[in-house]
Amino acid sequence: AQSVTQPDIHITVSEGASLELRCNYSYGATPYLFWYVQSPGQGLQLLLKYFSGDTLVQGIKGFEAEFKRSQSSFNLRKPSVHWSDAAEYFCAVGAGAGGFKTIFGAGTRLFVKA
Amino acid sequence: DAGVIQSPRHEVTEMGQEVTLRCKLISGHNSLFWYRQTMMRGLELLIYFNNNVPIDDSGMPEDRFSAKMPNASFSTLKIQPSEPRDSAVYFCASSLGAQETQYFGPGTRLLVL
Fold first, then answer.
1. Which of A53, B3, B44, B65 is most exposed, with the fewest beta carbons within 10 Å of its own?
2. For position A52, what pLDDT does the model report?
3. Does B42 touch chain A (CB under 8 A)?
4. With contacts defined as CB-CB under 8 Å, which chain B residues touch A51?
5. Quick one: pLDDT at residue A95?
6. Are A32 and A99 in contact (CB under 8 A)?
7. At a CB cut-off of 8 Å and minimum separation 6, what does B113 contact?
8. CB contact under 8 A, B105 and A43
9. Contact status, residue A11 vs residue A77, Cβ threshold 8 Å
10. CA dist., res. B91 & res. B104, Å (int)
11. Using 50, 70 and 90 to split pLDDT, how confident is the model at A101?
Protein backbone atom coordinates (compact mmCIF):
# COMPACT_ATOMS: atom_id res chain seq x y z
CA ALA A 1 0.00 0.00 0.00
CA GLN A 2 1.09 3.53 -0.68
CA SER A 3 2.29 5.52 2.30
CA VAL A 4 4.30 8.56 3.23
CA THR A 5 6.43 8.85 6.33
CA GLN A 6 7.67 12.09 7.81
CA PRO A 7 9.79 10.93 10.72
CA ASP A 8 10.05 14.31 12.44
CA ILE A 9 6.89 15.57 14.11
CA HIS A 10 8.48 18.93 14.76
CA ILE A 11 11.79 20.66 14.11
CA THR A 12 13.25 23.85 15.54
CA VAL A 13 15.74 25.82 13.47
CA SER A 14 17.44 29.14 14.10
CA GLU A 15 16.67 31.91 11.65
CA GLY A 16 19.30 31.94 8.94
CA ALA A 17 20.23 28.30 9.45
CA SER A 18 19.72 25.62 6.84
CA LEU A 19 16.75 23.28 6.88
CA GLU A 20 16.12 19.73 5.78
CA LEU A 21 12.76 18.03 6.26
CA ARG A 22 12.71 14.30 5.69
CA CYS A 23 10.18 12.33 3.70
CA ASN A 24 10.10 8.67 2.78
CA TYR A 25 7.46 7.09 0.62
CA SER A 26 6.24 3.65 -0.27
CA TYR A 27 4.87 3.25 -3.78
CA GLY A 28 5.27 0.52 -6.35
CA ALA A 29 5.48 2.63 -9.48
CA THR A 30 7.19 5.89 -10.32
CA PRO A 31 5.66 8.29 -7.84
CA TYR A 32 4.33 11.76 -8.20
CA LEU A 33 5.75 13.60 -5.19
CA PHE A 34 4.74 16.87 -3.60
CA TRP A 35 5.61 19.18 -0.74
CA TYR A 36 2.93 21.45 0.67
CA VAL A 37 3.06 24.10 3.38
CA GLN A 38 0.21 25.00 5.71
CA SER A 39 0.21 28.12 7.84
CA PRO A 40 -2.03 28.19 10.92
CA GLY A 41 -5.69 28.46 9.97
CA GLN A 42 -4.93 28.30 6.28
CA GLY A 43 -5.26 25.80 3.49
CA LEU A 44 -2.31 24.06 1.91
CA GLN A 45 -0.05 25.67 -0.62
CA LEU A 46 2.09 23.68 -3.04
CA LEU A 47 5.82 24.33 -2.65
CA LEU A 48 7.06 22.00 -5.36
CA LYS A 49 6.35 18.75 -7.16
CA TYR A 50 8.21 15.99 -8.92
CA PHE A 51 6.76 13.95 -11.75
CA SER A 52 9.83 13.00 -13.80
CA GLY A 53 13.10 14.34 -15.12
CA ASP A 54 15.66 16.18 -13.05
CA THR A 55 15.65 14.73 -9.55
CA LEU A 56 16.45 18.08 -7.97
CA VAL A 57 13.32 20.18 -8.01
CA GLN A 58 13.14 23.89 -7.33
CA GLY A 59 10.06 25.34 -5.71
CA ILE A 60 8.70 28.58 -4.42
CA LYS A 61 10.02 30.56 -1.46
CA GLY A 62 13.55 29.27 -1.99
CA PHE A 63 12.76 25.62 -1.28
CA GLU A 64 14.12 22.65 -3.18
CA ALA A 65 13.71 18.90 -2.90
CA GLU A 66 15.68 15.95 -4.18
CA PHE A 67 14.12 12.69 -5.32
CA LYS A 68 16.27 9.68 -4.48
CA ARG A 69 14.72 6.53 -5.84
CA SER A 70 17.26 4.23 -4.15
CA GLN A 71 16.31 5.62 -0.77
CA SER A 72 12.60 6.18 -1.51
CA SER A 73 13.09 9.69 -0.24
CA PHE A 74 12.06 13.18 -1.23
CA ASN A 75 13.63 15.51 1.32
CA LEU A 76 12.87 19.22 1.38
CA ARG A 77 15.67 21.73 1.85
CA LYS A 78 16.20 25.43 2.24
CA PRO A 79 19.65 27.01 2.67
CA SER A 80 18.57 29.84 4.97
CA VAL A 81 15.35 29.80 6.96
CA HIS A 82 13.30 32.94 7.57
CA TRP A 83 10.94 33.44 10.51
CA SER A 84 8.03 33.46 8.06
CA ASP A 85 8.81 29.84 7.15
CA ALA A 86 7.37 28.67 10.47
CA ALA A 87 4.48 26.44 9.46
CA GLU A 88 3.54 22.81 8.98
CA TYR A 89 5.00 20.99 6.02
CA PHE A 90 3.42 18.01 4.33
CA CYS A 91 5.02 15.54 1.97
CA ALA A 92 2.62 13.71 -0.32
CA VAL A 93 2.60 11.05 -2.98
CA GLY A 94 0.15 10.95 -5.86
CA ALA A 95 -1.19 7.46 -6.30
CA GLY A 96 -3.86 5.95 -8.53
CA ALA A 97 -4.28 6.36 -12.25
CA GLY A 98 -2.92 9.76 -13.17
CA GLY A 99 -1.69 10.35 -9.65
CA PHE A 100 -4.82 12.08 -8.46
CA LYS A 101 -5.13 10.20 -5.19
CA THR A 102 -2.87 12.27 -2.99
CA ILE A 103 -1.67 10.53 0.16
CA PHE A 104 -0.24 12.87 2.73
CA GLY A 105 2.32 12.32 5.42
CA ALA A 106 1.54 13.29 8.99
CA GLY A 107 3.35 16.59 8.63
CA THR A 108 6.36 18.23 10.23
CA ARG A 109 5.86 21.41 12.18
CA LEU A 110 8.71 23.86 11.77
CA PHE A 111 9.53 26.31 14.51
CA VAL A 112 11.98 29.13 13.79
CA LYS A 113 13.83 30.79 16.65
CA ALA A 114 15.40 34.20 16.49
CA ASP B 1 -9.01 35.26 -9.29
CA ALA B 2 -10.38 34.82 -5.79
CA GLY B 3 -9.11 31.30 -5.44
CA VAL B 4 -11.09 28.39 -4.08
CA ILE B 5 -13.94 29.62 -1.91
CA GLN B 6 -15.39 27.58 0.92
CA SER B 7 -18.36 28.30 3.10
CA PRO B 8 -19.04 28.43 5.90
CA ARG B 9 -15.61 28.94 7.44
CA HIS B 10 -16.83 27.67 10.78
CA GLU B 11 -19.78 25.48 11.64
CA VAL B 12 -20.97 24.36 15.04
CA THR B 13 -23.86 21.93 15.12
CA GLU B 14 -25.43 19.31 17.29
CA MET B 15 -25.21 15.60 16.77
CA GLY B 16 -27.87 14.36 14.40
CA GLN B 17 -28.17 17.56 12.42
CA GLU B 18 -27.50 17.81 8.71
CA VAL B 19 -24.40 19.74 7.70
CA THR B 20 -23.69 21.08 4.22
CA LEU B 21 -20.28 22.37 3.25
CA ARG B 22 -19.84 24.36 0.06
CA CYS B 23 -16.99 24.87 -2.35
CA LYS B 24 -16.56 27.09 -5.40
CA LEU B 25 -13.81 26.02 -7.76
CA ILE B 26 -11.37 28.33 -9.46
CA SER B 27 -12.79 29.32 -12.83
CA GLY B 28 -11.66 26.95 -15.56
CA HIS B 29 -10.62 24.15 -13.23
CA ASN B 30 -12.18 20.76 -13.92
CA SER B 31 -10.97 18.65 -11.01
CA LEU B 32 -12.32 18.90 -7.49
CA PHE B 33 -11.06 17.22 -4.33
CA TRP B 34 -12.57 17.07 -0.85
CA TYR B 35 -10.21 16.42 2.08
CA ARG B 36 -10.66 16.04 5.81
CA GLN B 37 -7.98 16.98 8.33
CA THR B 38 -7.92 15.75 11.93
CA MET B 39 -5.21 15.46 14.53
CA MET B 40 -5.61 11.71 14.70
CA ARG B 41 -5.77 10.85 11.00
CA GLY B 42 -4.06 13.80 9.34
CA LEU B 43 -5.17 14.78 5.84
CA GLU B 44 -7.38 12.30 4.05
CA LEU B 45 -8.78 12.45 0.53
CA LEU B 46 -12.52 11.88 0.72
CA ILE B 47 -13.61 12.13 -2.91
CA TYR B 48 -12.32 13.28 -6.27
CA PHE B 49 -14.37 14.65 -9.18
CA ASN B 50 -13.26 15.18 -12.75
CA ASN B 51 -15.52 17.11 -15.11
CA ASN B 52 -18.36 16.90 -12.56
CA VAL B 53 -18.14 13.11 -12.36
CA PRO B 54 -17.08 11.37 -9.15
CA ILE B 55 -14.01 9.32 -10.01
CA ASP B 56 -13.02 7.93 -6.63
CA ASP B 57 -15.09 8.08 -3.46
CA SER B 58 -13.28 5.34 -1.60
CA GLY B 59 -12.24 7.81 1.08
CA MET B 60 -15.78 8.74 2.03
CA PRO B 61 -16.14 7.41 5.57
CA GLU B 62 -19.66 6.03 5.35
CA ASP B 63 -23.09 6.52 3.87
CA ARG B 64 -23.71 9.53 6.05
CA PHE B 65 -21.36 11.44 3.77
CA SER B 66 -22.32 12.48 0.26
CA ALA B 67 -20.81 14.88 -2.25
CA LYS B 68 -22.18 16.42 -5.41
CA MET B 69 -21.17 18.72 -8.21
CA PRO B 70 -24.39 20.23 -9.54
CA ASN B 71 -22.37 22.28 -12.01
CA ALA B 72 -18.78 22.74 -13.15
CA SER B 73 -17.91 25.40 -10.62
CA PHE B 74 -19.62 24.31 -7.42
CA SER B 75 -19.63 21.36 -5.06
CA THR B 76 -21.28 20.38 -1.79
CA LEU B 77 -20.29 17.89 0.88
CA LYS B 78 -23.18 16.82 3.05
CA ILE B 79 -23.13 14.93 6.33
CA GLN B 80 -26.45 13.54 7.48
CA PRO B 81 -26.77 12.81 10.34
CA SER B 82 -23.65 14.38 11.79
CA GLU B 83 -21.73 12.82 14.67
CA PRO B 84 -19.10 14.22 17.06
CA ARG B 85 -16.39 12.15 15.35
CA ASP B 86 -17.03 14.13 12.16
CA SER B 87 -15.49 17.17 13.82
CA ALA B 88 -12.57 18.20 11.62
CA VAL B 89 -11.39 20.77 9.12
CA TYR B 90 -12.74 20.04 5.66
CA PHE B 91 -10.82 21.34 2.67
CA CYS B 92 -11.71 21.40 -0.96
CA ALA B 93 -9.13 21.86 -3.68
CA SER B 94 -9.41 22.36 -7.42
CA SER B 95 -7.03 21.86 -10.29
CA LEU B 96 -6.83 21.98 -14.06
CA GLY B 97 -6.44 18.21 -14.13
CA ALA B 98 -5.51 15.23 -12.01
CA GLN B 99 -1.78 15.82 -12.28
CA GLU B 100 -1.91 19.59 -12.08
CA THR B 101 -1.33 21.70 -9.01
CA GLN B 102 -4.16 21.54 -6.52
CA TYR B 103 -5.25 24.88 -5.08
CA PHE B 104 -6.74 24.55 -1.63
CA GLY B 105 -9.50 26.58 -0.10
CA PRO B 106 -9.19 27.99 3.43
CA GLY B 107 -11.21 25.12 4.89
CA THR B 108 -14.36 24.74 6.95
CA ARG B 109 -13.83 24.01 10.61
CA LEU B 110 -16.68 21.76 11.74
CA LEU B 111 -17.53 21.04 15.34
CA VAL B 112 -20.28 18.55 16.10
CA LEU B 113 -21.41 18.63 19.71
1. A53
2. 85
3. yes
4. 99
5. 76
6. yes
7. B12, B13, B14, B15, B84
8. yes
9. no
10. 7
11. confident
